[in-house]
């Protein structure tokens, strides 16, 4: 071998070694996709921005994608109130399937309504594969009430309440109001089952879609965090997939007592017995936790 060829080989292997150091060595991390809640956006430095930064500090080299629904932060925030949720989910599925960094799979962490939206992604879009789904204050059986709204959005909430009361299950309201799409009226169970375009579909109220079951069951873990002093979610039990017993709005039932589980409509029975369902609780109001709590309880699912 001539000198120049040897040098070239050295250069190439040096380069490979360097690549090994930076791209393989540190990239044993699983990427994380996060979806913000109502009234929030991908990039608010006080919320999702700080979560992203915190995770990046705790897990060096991790790729964190904070989803923006739409083209700008303003659109992203508005879409959290007004964009058809089924369309939001397909928008996200497209984005994830086109991201080369997610090819090998990813963990997902949803905040508030972002949690049930990410569960829809898990059920509908298995490629790339979601590994762990972490629901932080999500409402897997929806809400029946909107007691308080986050931050600046209280005037929007007044209007939303009016729309929900005037007919949450009419087609127009369903298509244009995000919160109507996970509105679960236990007093009108038939209406909910028949006309809820999003939640009743992903919760298999009308038909059992075997694909949804199979996809959800392929998660490693489905972690649900409940906030014990939550003043925004009604009923709070929805954060652990529980809800009011049908036909009334006083008595609650746990996930394990409800039809979605007893009839095994979503594969949750098998997931439960395989130890894939994790129920965590923390003191504090909606989405209020400390970094220490996060590190102790959620970080292990992101490694
Ligand atoms: C590996 O991590 C680096 C940052 O540490 C990132 O730039 C690169 O895109 C990652 N590669 C893959 C394949 O995820
Ligand atoms: C079941 O879900 C898959 C994935 O979203 C979808 O392609 C299919 O059309 C659904 N089947 C039924 C019967 O709704």
Overall helicity? 40-55%
Strand order of the largest sheet: 2-1-3-4-5-8
- List how many beta strands DSSP finds: 8
- How much of the polypeptide forms β-strand, as a percent range? 5-15%
Bound chemical compounds: 2-acetamido-2-deoxy-beta-D-glucopyranose
Amino- and carboxy-terminal Cα gap: 45 Å
Overall form: globular
User: What is the CATH top level name of the domain at 26-142 and 207-243 and 252-302?
Assistant: Alpha Beta
CATH topology of the domain at 26-142 and 207-243 and 252-302: Rossmann fold
Mean pLDDT: 90
- Count of helical stretches: 13
CATH architecture descriptor of the domain at 26-142 and 207-243 and 252-302? 3-Layer(aba) Sandwich
**Largest beta-sheet details:** 6 strands, parallel
Radius of gyration: 21 Å
> Which structural class is indicated by helix and strand composition?
alpha/beta
Name the CATH homologous superfamily of the domain at 26-142 and 207-243 and 252-302: Alpha/Beta hydrolase fold, catalytic domain
Order of helices and strands: HEHEHHEHEHHHHHEEEHHEH
Question: Low-confidence stretches at least 5 residues in length (pLDDT < 50)?
Answer: 1-25
């Amino acid at each position: 071998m001539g000198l120049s060829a040897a040098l070239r080989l050295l250069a190439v292997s040096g380069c490979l070694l360097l690549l090994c150091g930076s791209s393989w060595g540190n990239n044993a991390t699983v990427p994380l996709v996060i979806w913000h809640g109502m009234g929030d956006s991908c990039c608010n430095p006080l919320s999702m921005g700080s979560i992203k930064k915190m995770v990046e500090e705790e897990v060096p080299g991790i790729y964190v994608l904070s989803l923006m629904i739409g083209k700008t932060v303003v659109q992203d925030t508005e879409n959290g109130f007004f964009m058809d949720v089924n369309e939001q989910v397909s928008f996200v599925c497209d984005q994830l399937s086109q991201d080369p960094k997610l090819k090998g799979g990813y963990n997902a962490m949803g905040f508030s309504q972002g949690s049930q939206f990410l569960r829809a992604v898990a059920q509908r879009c298995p490629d790339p594969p979601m590994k762990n789904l972490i629901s932080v204050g999500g409402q897997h059986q929806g809400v029946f009430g909107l007691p308080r709204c986050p931050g600046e959005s209280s005037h929007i909430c007044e209007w939303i309440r009016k729309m929900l009361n005037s007919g949450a299950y009419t087609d127009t309201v369903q298509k244009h109001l995000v919160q109507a799409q996970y509105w679960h009226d236990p007093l009108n169970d038939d209406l909910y089952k028949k006309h809820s375009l999003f939640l009743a579909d992903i919760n298999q109220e009308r038909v059992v879609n075997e694909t949804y079951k199979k996809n959800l069951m392929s998660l490693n873990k489905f972690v649900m965090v409940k906030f014990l002093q939550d003043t925004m979610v009604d009923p709070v039990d929805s954060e652990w997939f529980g809800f009011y017993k049908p036909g009334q709005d006083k008595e609650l039932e746990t996930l394990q007592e409800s039809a979605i589980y007893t009839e095994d409509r979503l594969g949750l029975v098998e997931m439960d017995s395989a130890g894939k369902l994790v129920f965590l609780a923390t003191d504090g109001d909606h989405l209020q936790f400390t970094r220490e709590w996060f590190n102790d309880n959620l970080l292990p699912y992101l490694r």
